Amino acid sequence: MNKDFVNISDILSLMAGDEPAFAAVYKWYAEKVYRLAFRFLKNQAQSEEIVQETFIKLWLTKGQLKPQGNLWLYLFVIAKRLSINTLRQHNQSAHTFEQLADRMAEIQNVTEEQVIAHDLEQFTEKILQKLPKQQQQVFKMSRREGLTHKEIAERLHISPNTVKNHMVEALKTLKSYLRYADFICLIFLHLYK
To answer: Can you give the residue range of the structural domain that contains 81?
Structure first.
């Protein structure tokens, strides 16, 4: 046998299931199959796998060989297809992983935002409970019910100017507590990073 050619008797022996003939073909072409796979994959382990898969496929389809056929061309086609399929699977997996990671990040951000919003709402509610009753009432009617100062004044039987003063004081109290909470948060993050 020369380097680029396996003779007809070798192919016939392989087709008949002769293991020594298969071992000879493997010895002859394994390195070429490896180099071909490596050109596609640039990965030693994957290229070695392609060699194994190519020769397994050769053994399983040995009955379909043509004695006068070009065995290297047959192996070349198998190895090329397997390499391309491996590339596709790898790229698809990487793309799928990226999509999954992006989706997980989105879900995590939404969840974090919901947790933060919920915590902020609870914190605000605790601050509001510390306000005088009428300030609480004015603030809730303005911010939660969306009433104007005039509408609040009419409902509570107070002047619009008193409503405005209650809102100013309530917002001032809220801002000071929220600034304090931000300061505590910054200290906590600084200490535990």
So the answer is: 8-94
